[in-house]
Amino acid sequence: MSCPICKNDSAARYRPFCSKRCADIDLGRWMRGSYAIPADEPPADADAQEADIRPRETRH
């Protein structure tokens, strides 16, 4: 199996990667959202999503 980042042979310790460096590169790509799957629908309105997240004020 070859490393998905640099195409060198993978190492058992870092499988499927060849090194910690390539594993860290892959992790960084996931964290930046580089591996996002495109959607057919446009994202929902940001204001509507924010309203669902904000805590509601209560009257006492």
UniProtKB/TrEMBL annotation:
<feature type="binding site">
    <location>
        <position position="22"/>
    </location>
    <ligand>
        <name>Zn(2+)</name>
    </ligand>
</feature>
<feature type="binding site">
    <location>
        <position position="6"/>
    </location>
    <ligand>
        <name>Zn(2+)</name>
    </ligand>
</feature>
<dbReference type="InterPro" id="IPR013088">
    <property type="entry name" value="Znf_NHR/GATA"/>
</dbReference>
<dbReference type="GO" id="GO:0008657">
    <property type="term" value="F:DNA topoisomerase type II (double strand cut, ATP-hydrolyzing) inhibitor activity"/>
</dbReference>
<dbReference type="GO" id="GO:0008270">
    <property type="term" value="F:zinc ion binding"/>
</dbReference>
<dbReference type="InterPro" id="IPR005584">
    <property type="entry name" value="DNA_gyrase_inhibitor_YacG"/>
</dbReference>
<comment type="function">
    <text>Inhibits all the catalytic activities of DNA gyrase by preventing its interaction with DNA. Acts by binding directly to the C-terminal domain of GyrB, which probably disrupts DNA binding by the gyrase.</text>
</comment>
<protein>
    <recommendedName>
        <fullName>DNA gyrase inhibitor YacG</fullName>
    </recommendedName>
</protein>
<keyword id="KW-0479">Metal-binding</keyword>
<feature type="binding site">
    <location>
        <position position="18"/>
    </location>
    <ligand>
        <name>Zn(2+)</name>
    </ligand>
</feature>
<feature type="binding site">
    <location>
        <position position="3"/>
    </location>
    <ligand>
        <name>Zn(2+)</name>
    </ligand>
</feature>
<keyword id="KW-0862">Zinc</keyword>
<dbReference type="Pfam" id="PF03884">
    <property type="entry name" value="YacG"/>
</dbReference>
<feature type="compositionally biased region" description="Basic and acidic residues">
    <location>
        <begin position="51"/>
        <end position="60"/>
    </location>
</feature>
<dbReference type="GO" id="GO:0006355">
    <property type="term" value="P:regulation of DNA-templated transcription"/>
</dbReference>
<comment type="subunit">
    <text>Interacts with GyrB.</text>
</comment>
<comment type="similarity">
    <text>Belongs to the DNA gyrase inhibitor YacG family.</text>
</comment>
<feature type="region of interest" description="Disordered">
    <location>
        <begin position="36"/>
        <end position="60"/>
    </location>
</feature>
